[in-house]
Write a structure and sequence with these properties.
Length: 219
């Protein structure tokens, strides 16, 4: 399943990021347009030219003028933040992978994120949060490297991560009481709930999956 997912998504990794990038490029060009040229036909032509330039297609799969951020005063000139955030995520991931070798179930990561990212919040700049944690200024290289991987390279990395995870010892996770009523439903059918306990709910859900999709658990 992981291999199939990589095959389906990796070839379009860069294109997906360009789908974000095209919005601020168009928006900047729109705001630079002389007021006398702010006619519907001119704006539409500018959108189509931006899609051709960034995406390489005459009309994007999600047409630019259908994106509400461009029409909403509170969201205007903010879309680039999604791409900056993606870049920072991959830079942060790369730092943790260099330092610890793994991410999932790593108890050291949460406190570090809390100290350097969540605690300061908007009190420091985007760049300064990254310097605080990683010691390196904002760098788009890590997201670019991920996008530039071939399917075989991405699959090789995934295989190594799975092999490392299988050989790694993890601390026993706590079993906190969430103080919540949880139901897992499939349409109108209640598959499982935690009326008895959270563990009973997990067992019920696993049993349901095994009954209806036995090949899933077999793999």
């Amino acid at each position: 399943m992981i291999r199939a997912q990589i095959e389906a998504t990796q070839p379009f990794a860069a294109y997906a990021e360009r789908g974000i990038l095209v919005v601020p490029f168009f928006e900047r060009a729109l705001y630079e347009l002389p007021e006398a040229q702010l006619e519907p036909e001119q704006v539409l032509a500018l959108a189509r030219a931006s899609e051709q330039r960034i995406l390489g297609v005459p009309v994007g799969p999600r047409p630019l003028l259908a994106i509400p951020h461009l029409l909403n005063q509170e969201s205007a000139a903010a879309y680039h933040g999604y791409l900056l955030a993606n870049m920072a995520v991959y830079q942060t991931r790369a730092y943790f992978e260099r330092r610890f070798g793994f991410l999932t179930d790593n108890p050291a990561i949460g406190p570090l994120l809390a100290k350097h990212y969540w605690g300061p919040g908007n009190g420091i700049s985007h760049n300064d949060t990254l310097i605080s944690l990683t010691g390196e200024a904002f760098n788009a290289k890590y997201l670019a490297d991920e996008c530039n991987k071939t399917i075989d390279q991405a699959w090789k990395d995934a295989q190594k991560q799975m092999a490392d995870a299988a050989n790694r010892s993890y601390p026993t996770p706590p079993n906190p009481d969430l103080d919540a009523t949880i139901r897992i439903v499939h349409g109108a059918e209640v598959i499982a709930d935690n009326q008895e306990s959270d563990q009973a709910m997990c067992d019920q859900f696993e049993s349901w999956v095994g009954k209806h999709y036995p090949a899933t658990l077999a793999h």
